[in-house]
Amino acid sequence: MADLRIPIAPGVPHQVQRTRLDGREYVLAFRWSQREAQWYLDLRDAEGELLAGPIKLVVHWPLLESRRGARPEMPPGELMLVDGRQTPADPGLDELGDVVQLLYREASA
Fold it and tell me: How many angstroms from the chain centroid is the CA of residue 28?
C-alpha cells in the first residue's frame, strides 16, 4: 500500500481542493474553528455531495474508518494526520500542512 501526502497550505483557515484517492476524485474542504482552536474536514464526492463531515482532525486517528460503512462512495483507503514532533498534538492553525501532515493510505497498491 502507498501513502499519499495531501498538500495543505499552513495558516490558511479555509481551503478547498480536489484530490484523487484510489483513482476517484473527491473534494476536501478544510475549515479552522477559531472558537475551538480545531481543524475540521468535509469530504465530498466529485459532484459536491457531502459524504462525511464535519470530521474533527485528530492526530494518529483513522478519520474515515467509522464512516465508511454508511456510504459506498467513501474512499476505500484511510485518512490520518501524522505529527512528527516528539510530543504529538492536534494541529494549530499554522501547523496543518507543516509539522502535521494529512496522509491517505491507499486501499490498492
Answer: 7
